């Protein structure tokens, strides 16, 4: 039986600080509860890592933030705007929401017929950025993530790590207030994983607000301000990385970490 939830977060953040605020979030698929009364805040400039076993609701939680999945209940607030509440979508401009909340997917989602530069330019052009400005920003961002030399390559000509770095550059091009990462290294080999995590470390050092789902627990310990353990659609435990990952209070968290240690 799961013990009562305790968290290290004893004082709520000031309402003006949270870029993402989730209250009482619920979501079901075909009668199966995937998220059950989830509450979570991501403060500006902070990095929150969501961990847990596959199928526990982590990705669904993330996709509810930018309404790629529509919650059944609860409230989602982004950058001070309530975008979903009580089962109703209140956001009237989804493209603007998804520019505010950039997302880096597990499977890259680059357009295969476009070059790396063109993928980044296209995202900006759809957002109304002038062509020359979009091109200059794309080149600068490819340089920032370390793949400027691959700007004219199409996705099939890029390694997995290069594709994911292009995807990060594309998300950054729209100048989001928060970046979501959905297991960004799970499809990569160890070398590519190191490359992508290096870029994410630099973003963290620059103060980018990030919410990430990850199985890279050492990375979560290193860069996160807050770690959330999700199991069975509920937040079982949350707090500082050293508390949750090194000294977990909940039995279920200890079981998960022990299993992770036996397979890592």
UniProtKB/TrEMBL annotation:
Signal peptide: none annotated. It is found in: Cell membrane. One of its GO terms (molecular function) is ABC-type amino acid transporter activity. Keywords: Amino-acid transport, ATP-binding, Cell membrane, Membrane, Nucleotide-binding, Transport. One of its GO terms (cellular component) is plasma membrane. The keyword Nucleotide-binding applies. This is Peptide ABC transporter ATP-binding protein.
């Amino acid at each position: 039986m799961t013990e009562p939830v305790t968290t290290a977060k004893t004082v709520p953040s000031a309402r003006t600080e949270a870029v993402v605020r989730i209250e009482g979030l619920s979501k079901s698929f075909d009668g199966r509860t995937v998220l059950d009364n989830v509450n979570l805040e991501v403060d500006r400039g902070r990095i929150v890592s969501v961990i847990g076993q596959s199928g526990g609701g982590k990705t669904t939680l993330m996709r509810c933030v930018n309404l790629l999945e529509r919650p059944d209940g609860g409230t989602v607030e982004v950058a001070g705007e309530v975008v979903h509440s009580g089962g109703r979508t209140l956001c009237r401009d989804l493209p603007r929401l998804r520019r505010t909340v950039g997302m880096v997917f597990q499977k890259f989602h680059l357009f295969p017929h476009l070059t790396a530069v063109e993928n980044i330019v296209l995202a900006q052009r759809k957002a109304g950025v002038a062509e020359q400005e979009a091109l200059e920003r794309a080149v600068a961002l490819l340089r920032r993530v370390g793949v400027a030399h691959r700007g004219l390559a199409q996705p099939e000509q890029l390694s997995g790590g290069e594709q994911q770095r292009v995807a990060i550059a594309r998300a950054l091009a729209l100048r989001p207030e928060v970046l979501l990462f959905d297991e960004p290294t799970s499809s990569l080999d160890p070398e590519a994983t190191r490359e992508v995590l290096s870029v994410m470390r630099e973003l963290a050092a620059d103060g980018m607000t990030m919410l990430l789902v990850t199985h890279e627990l050492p990375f979560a310990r290193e860069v996160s301000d807050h770690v959330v353990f999700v199991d069975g659609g509920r937040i079982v435990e949350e707090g500082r990385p050293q508390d949750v990952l090194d000294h977990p209070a909940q039995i279920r968290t200890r079981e998960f970490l022990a299993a992770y240690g036996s397979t890592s």
